[in-house]
Amino acid sequence: MMARYAAFVLYLFLLPGLFLMANESREKAEGAIESSPLSLLNSFSVDGAGGAEYDGEFYYASDLTSGSISVYDASGTIQESFSIPSVPGLTDLAYDGSNMYGVDGSNTIYEMDFTAKSLIATITAEVATSMIAYDAASNAFWLGAAEGDLFQADRAGGLLNTISADDHTLSAMKGAALDSWSPGGPFLWIYTDVNRPTGNNQILVPINLASGTPSGLAYNTDPDLGGEQTAGGGIFAVAGDIANSVIIGGISAGPENILFSYEYLGQFINPLQASIFPTAPPLLIPAEGGRVEVTWQFTSNFLQPQSFDAWGDLQRPNGSIIRGYNRARSYNINPGATIQRFLRRNMPGRYAGGEYIYYLHIGSYPLVPIDTDTLRFFKEPPAIAPGATPVNINDGNLPEVTSLAKNYPNPFNPSTRIDFQLQTGEMINLSIYNTLGQKIATLAEGYREAGAYSEIWNGRHANGQPAPSGIYIYRLTAGNYTQSFKMFLMK
């Protein structure tokens, strides 16, 4: 226990630069979310500006323009360059221990033998992808484009799982790598570009696969690589030399294309945590309109005072999002403290009826949020004008899509309801996880016919022990559909 505590304190001690926004360093803080758990091991110039991979002995870099592959040893000395017939310039690479795989932004995954310099086969994915990471535990791939959802696909290209863009919150994604070695994982690392008035920044962000959300770390590689880089490229991940460590590496493009590698050792934690809940639940806006009154709560796990930004977005019932529903505000927080802010907004009666989702983000606006929490509330439909005919949306048909709803109430004590619907009959699993990705309870499992379902979680572990206050993840798997959301147990 003392060893864990000491490691935790050391981790927090190493993060004094994260979100420091004093006037003399404001420009730097706005350029990136800074932290120091990553140690630069190696960096050298390369010819390629696309994908990157490491096979345990050599580094590989693909060139987007020529389609060539360059091979480097650990000192950065080029060993050879070659091209493979019928393989174009590749944007990202992955390695399964035997063969290399590459993608070029189309639906094609190229399986290659880099020793024989030959194309073994092509795999047609169901989605276009410019990123690829090999998932050894599932013998599958993680795929994605610059924007949108992330997908897990089997070796035939069929989709297995999805991480929603609303959950991972990232954009301008350039490379992906799977980390199965860090505590609390596995994590899917993403290398993303962030454009700022002062230039571009390349940010490494690990996504927790259990929740589909950023882990709380966002590291800017640009200062380490000369401060003049313009774009991210492909990345790779391999086990480190120390237990529970991982080596994260990749390519950063710029005036000089650089292949880099970092060592990460430690647990992923959210150094700042955000929670949102109704000031006076339940939150139901009447047909004539009313006020949305919510409480923002922030908790610091730092050992030093910190500054950060908080902002709110609102998703309408039709899925469109009002960005900046609550404009970004700056806050200061003391070590270990919790602060609350009460906000209210008027919602006119003309707003559509249905479910609204309120997103609270904290971080360095408008970069990758360190933490995000959500709150759902409802508005009654606007009053029907005289002579108008009501529309009956409940015609008894089966659900048109498979979906998982946000739990209600949230926050909750002692129990909360989780609704989901199935378009077709499926084998399903609805389970509860803690923030370390450990399953603590299963609410539903087995075959279910098409239809709408509701489950209640009583806030207890599978063994009947009460779960402590905090954030939990509930996840529905139904056939090829997977979705996760956060909820807050508050006692």
How is this structure best summarized?
By secondary structure, the chain is mainly β. The chain has helices at 2-13, 26-31, 165-168, and strands at 38-45, 52-54, 59-62, 69-72, 78-82, 92-95, 100-103, 108-113, 118-124, 131-135, 140-144, 150-153, 159-163, 173-179, 187-196, 199-208, 213-214, 219-220, 231-239, 245-253, 258-265, 272-278, 284-285, 289-300, 306-315, 321-333, 338-348, 354-363, 371-379, 403-404, 416-422, 426-433, 439-448, 451-457, 470-478, 481-489. It folds into 3 domains: 32-265, TolB, C-terminal domain (Neuraminidase, 6 Propeller); 272-379, Sandwich (Immunoglobulin-like), CATH 2.60.40; 403-489, Immunoglobulin-like (Sandwich).
Write the layout of secondary structure elements.
Blueprint (H helix, E strand, L loop, with lengths): L1 H12 L12 H6 L6 E8 L6 E3 L4 E4 L6 E4 L5 E5 L9 E4 L4 E4 L4 E6 L4 E7 L6 E5 L4 E5 L5 E4 L5 E5 L1 H4 L4 E7 L7 E10 L2 E10 L4 E2 L4 E2 L10 E9 L5 E9 L4 E8 L6 E7 L5 E2 L3 E12 L5 E10 L5 E13 L4 E11 L5 E10 L7 E9 L23 E2 L11 E7 L3 E8 L5 E10 L2 E7 L12 E9 L2 E9 L2
Parallel strand pairs: 23-29
Antiparallel strand pairs: 1-21, 2-3, 3-4, 4-5, 6-7, 7-8, 8-9, 10-11, 11-12, 12-13, 14-15, 15-16, 16-17, 16-18, 19-20, 20-21, 22-24, 24-27, 25-26, 25-28, 28-29, 30-31, 31-34, 32-33, 32-35, 35-36
